[in-house]
Amino acid sequence: MTRLRAATRRWPAVAVALAAACAAILVAGLAGRSPSPHRAAGTGLSALPAPRAPAFTPGRPTRLGSTRELTRWAPVRAPVVARGAPDPGAPALATLSTRTPEGTDNAVEVLDRRTDGAGRPWLRVALPLLPNGTTGWVPRGALGGYQTVDTRLVIDLRTLRATLLRRGRVVLRAPVGVGRAGWPTPRGTFLVRNRLTRYRGATYGPVAFGTSARSPRATDWPAGGFVGIHGTDRPDLVPGRISHGCIRLRNADILALDRRMPIGTPVIIR
Amino acid sequence: MTDLTLGALDRDEALTEVVDELCGSTRAQLLRGAAVGGAAMLAALAAPSVAEGRVSDVRILNFALRFERLQAAFYTQGDEIGTVGRMPEPRREWAEVLGAHERAHVRILKRVLGPKAGPRPAFDFGAATETDLAFTRTVVAMEDLTVAFLTGVSPLLRDRAVTAAIFGLLTVEARHAAWGRHLLRRAPTPRPFDDGRTLASVQRAVARTGFIVDRPRTSSRRSPRFTG
Fold first, then answer.
1. DSSP letters of B71-109?
2. Between the N and C ends of chain B, which has fewer C-beta atoms within 10 Å?
3. Hey, is B196 helix, strand or coil?
């Protein structure tokens, strides 16, 4: 019993001695397995390989440039009443539908945004109504995701020319036919809402763009008298004042426009 | 009249739940939530889930590209509509820097993948980009999720050089998340160790946000009925 107590008292010292011996053996073993350059360098780290070169590295980050030339639009996700102010109690102006007369998703230009007293975001949008240029407020949730374009199409009713600009630079110019006397092409800022193609008939050429512009004279026209931008089967009449309000281009020009003008492009008729 | 305000609120509340979950969740919480979301939401992502381990580097990089595109689009939209511009200075700087980084990530991943790069999805961020708070909280959630994603997929990559590049992205994304958490007065490093998430769970989390949507249908073969 006395011997056992003496051994127990000595145990910490024995444990420390054993641990030191093990550590010495381990270090010696590791050193023995190390390649000679480690020992030669003294630190053992200099021969480690260099970091693996990455397969790619990002370029220089760039902050956003000016948004001055951008136009924002959004599809109408659910039928919604547009109001005169960003307030559920404000007077109703019209109901926005989710579809255009051509069956595509309705698209509206987003002009402004505001938050109401309850913290709900509202958007001011251009309404496809007469009088042209009417705007109204809709809840943010009524519209889908924002889309942006950096193009705009300018129609000059005096010179009978269309000019497409991207970021303010001219990318296309073409002569146009516009509304004849008594059927004027409306002035204002509108939106290209859709693109029709591969339809039957040659009257509208190979491609037609629907806009949010409405003819104040063609109110009883099928589908509401919306103004289109399209080709023609009478290129000899372009340029000229020849239509019921639509904007006609020669077929080669409308195809060139089709390659460069995205949906949502604002159309400025002046 | 259709009262869409309520619908919008419901949608945003659902989004907020996801954001809350991502901001402070464990993987178990995420998976519990994802199980409720179900397969329909998975369909929002073009890429189907695959068994981890059999996934190719290209597939991982393509999902990384998809995710980076989502983030880049979010920052860009917040900037373009003026939300970022109205933020107080520390947060404005943060959002602008992160936006620039994410756009750089998109550019390099697109270049690396070349013709194998997937198409750019369409996005609908709803009200998440409209206000400072919603924007900031969503960004932090996305950055946290990015860290978990890259942590999870890095060991699956076969090419060491690609792994090295992904580590380079991972550390930057972790700093984005920590910076945002600091600005929100949350712990920048809430845990001593970051769990990785599986590719499938990240796909589900992204799908649950509803940020990836179908493109608007703007073309038709109908005969025009314009004024002519």
1. HHHHHHHHHHTTTTTTS-HHHHHHHHHHHHHHHHHHHHH
2. N
3. coil
Mark whether A179 and A255 lie in a shared domain: yes
For chain B, which ranges sit under pLDDT 70?
1-54
Answer yes or no: do A157 and A258 share one domain: yes
Determine, yes or no, domain membership for A81: yes
Q: What CATH number is attached to the domain comprising A100?
A: 2.30.30.40
Mean pLDDT, range A212-219, rounded to an integer: 88
**What chain B residue is nearest to A95 in terms of C-alpha separation?**
B1
| Domain residue limits at A104 | 71-148
What is the per-residue pLDDT for B7?
31
pLDDT class of A227 with cuts at 50, 70, 90:
very high
pLDDT band for position A62 (cuts 50, 70, 90): confident
Q: Is A130 inside a domain boundary?
A: yes
Neighbours of A103 (CB within 10 A): 12
Residue A157 has which token pair? 């009713």
3-state helix, strand, coil in chain A (%, to 5): 20, 35, 45
Q: What is the DSSP letter of A224?
A: G
Q: Measured between CA atoms, how close is A235 to chain B, in angstroms? A: 14
Q: Which of A226, A257, A269 is nearest to A244 (CA)?
A: A226
B103 touches chain A (CB under 8 A): yes
Question: How many domains does chain A contain in total?
Answer: 2
Picking from A253, A222, A103, the residue whose alpha carbon sits closest to that of residue B227 is A222
Q: What is the pLDDT of residue B36?
A: 28
Contacts of B213 in chain A (CB under 8 A): 144-145
Complex-level ipTM beyond the 0.85 threshold:
no
Which H or E element spans position A82? strand A80-83
Cα dihedral sign, B208-B214-B70-B3? negative
My answer on whether A101 and A204 are in the same domain is: no
